[in-house]
Amino acid sequence: MRAGHGVLEDRVLLVAVYDRTNLTLRQAALLFGISKSVAGRAVDHLAPYLVLSPLRR
């Protein structure tokens, strides 16, 4: 596996954290110890598969 590319579970968690918090992509990437571009690719690739819906209040 190339440097900066985590396991699938870590990338799914990144996308969920990014979607459910007010963190910017840069902040989420820093939290997971990856670059903003790697985080952006994970979000772009995985978000459609996760079918994230808005929180119901």
From TrEMBL:
**Highest taxon in the source lineage:** Bacteria
| Residue ranges of every copy of the Transposase Helix-turn-helix domain listed in the record | 8-51
| Protein name in the entry | Transposase Helix-turn-helix domain-containing protein
Q: Which organism is it from?
A: Actinopolymorpha pittospori
